[in-house]
Design goal:
Shape: elongated
Number of strands: 2
Oligomer: single chain
Structural class: mainly alpha
Helix content: over 70%
Distance between the termini: 25 Å
Strand order of the largest sheet: 1-2
Amino acid sequence: MNFDDLYFLAPIIITAAIPVVLIVLIGFYRSHILTFSLSLIGLLLAFLSLFHISLRIPRQVTWLVAIDGYALLFMGLIFAAAIAVALLSYGYLSEKMIPLKSIMCFCCLLF
């Protein structure tokens, strides 16, 4: 696997790395807005990385992973839905005064 393969796997790598960062951050700083903003930034980074990849598709990354137009379309739909859920859930959960731990676990589960 070379750098080009990792370039095409960037949305998947970002989606896997941000929850780890979130969990470590939640262990030190318990803040609604920090958790929400970091999860939203991670989702936006993953979504925006799809546009960079779209210029060089199709690509067979491994024997089991192929990145083509359909893969980018469905990854984009999933990221857009996760962004919408994050935006809607922050206001709802803050309004309901749900304990901080449950909101932070929910933001980690979005990934």
